[in-house]
Amino acid sequence: MSEDQRTLTTRQGHPVSDNQSLRSVGERGPATLENYQFIEKITHFDRERIPERVVHARGTGAHGYFEAYGRIGDEPATKYTRAKVLTRAGKRTPVFVRFSTVIGGRESPETARDPRGFAVKLYTEDGNWDLVGNNLKVFFIRDAIKFPDMIHAFKPDPVSNRQEPWRFYDFVQFHPEALHMVTWVKSPWGIPASYRQMEGSGVNTYKLVNDEGVAHLVKFHWVPKAGVKNLTSQQAAEIQAKDVGHATRDLYEAIERGDYPEWEFCVQLMSDGEHPELDFDPLDDTKRWPEDQFPLLPVGRMVLDRNPPNVFADTEQSAFGTGVLVDGIDFSDDKMLQGRTLSYSDTQRYRVGPNYLQLPINAPRRDTRTNQRDGQMTCYVDQAGENPHVNYEPSSMGGLEEAPKRGRDHHQWVEGHLGRYQTSRTADDYKQAGERYRTFEDWEREDLIANLVADMKECPEHIRLRMVWHFWHCDEDYGRRVAEGAGIDLERALKLPPLEGKPAPGRRREAPTYTSGQPEEGTKAQGGKEATGQREPQFAK
């Protein structure tokens, strides 16, 4: 290394000959205003942290690649989509993945009971594709207008600065669609053992579009090749006592030793339409698509094989958005997806700046040519057309031109009265939550009940009664065990009327009887296989 390469400089390139002392009037006198070196240094230090993400603040990331199979199940991928990233067998596309917790701050423990973010940025030849999801396949709400309320209720109390169970359940008691997600997140599934042994899901419903403009509804899923492993509350507490960043360490060390994490990328497909034969709306992200009816079809695989050279530059400055799609993948009318598409990218412009896409971690791996200009922290001007004087379109003076279309447009017929609507198919608000309860392993169900009982003991009586009412309508055994554990009068809870403005729950599902620790035939088989034939991953207790 030459002497110049070793010389400390300012950000302006000025050599620094004294990095130990302010300029001052005498040895003990006041500092002067022309301390440019100090002012530059300290003001940059003051700005070394960009605003923390409102949600998903605690996270870690890794680089890797996605390899397409060129098929969707047994069919050529081109039957369903014209997206090159999915249709060209063997093609490898660079990716960056950020895993995260949701509610806690940047220094919160990774053992927190919380959904996990699973955000993938694919640097395709046609530009970036961001698949922004969670480890669980469902969500708490189905309308984006409720998202700020939900996060406010789940975040720390603005007075006590603590996450209070009563705030969580005070919100949930008025949103029966959240019961499904509550059943998942309060079970061991709410604390993944590691990011490598964690599923991922796009959660929202998208569309795949082929060359003829034919669309299919689609759900995206990542299935870990290492299997799924979750933690009980006790196991998580033991880990947290020694390590608040165990999942970050696990991912980093696995990649460093060459044990590269791998996931199979799968889709569920459904014809585009309302599907009145189903007792749930396929656009409702609080519901799962039953895998016996809509099986997971392999599409490709993803491997993470490189840690970021700098956590801040890559992981913290990485910016994702659900609206970042490529040709052949399109939006559905999923209300959460519609709201997230505005919110996510708007958040990045606030958090990182209007030119966040010029940062290397976010920039596409192909030339960009736009007529967008300037703004805070502009690093370069996108390549212009033949005439750099022309930054508008159309033009006869050598400006940029529209790209030719690939395939036919997907035309969706839309009509209806403008208004504010809630889905009318709400039977599954209780049905799927009850089904999930019954298909848990015994140890998962016991951990779920123990977690809910502890929470109920910290809630006011009226919230406890209503939550037991909800749990009982999901499954009678579910509600009874929570009531007994928390000392709640079940008969009194069941006398509550349905929520005002909400439809009454559908037919109750009888709780199965278990003997010798094994589920009855026809309710759940060993290894997490449901009576429908749907298979869940094996777990280590």
UniProtKB/TrEMBL annotation:
Keyword field: Heme, Hydrogen peroxide, Iron, Metal-binding, Oxidoreductase, Peroxidase
Biased composition regions of type Polar residues, renumbered to the chain: 7-23
Domain Catalase core: 9-401
Enzyme's top EC category: oxidoreductase
Coiled-coil intervals: none
EC nos: 1.11.1.6
Pfam family, one: Catalase-rel
Cofactor(s) named in the record: heme
InterPro entries: Catalase (IPR018028), Catalase_AS (IPR024708), Catalase_clade1/3 (IPR024711), Catalase_core (IPR011614), Catalase_immune_responsive (IPR010582), Catalase_sf (IPR020835)
Annotated spans, Disordered: 1-29, 386-409, 494-541
SMART domains in the cross-refs: Catalase
Gene3D superfamilies, sorted: Catalase core domain (2.40.180.10)
The keyword ATP-binding belongs to this UniProt entry's keyword annotation: no
Main function: Decomposes hydrogen peroxide into water and oxygen; serves to protect cells from the toxic effects of hydrogen peroxide.
Family to which this protein belongs: Belongs to the catalase family.
Protein known as: Catalase
Organism name: Benzoatithermus flavus
Lineage, opening ranks: Bacteria, Pseudomonadati, Pseudomonadota, Alphaproteobacteria, Geminicoccales
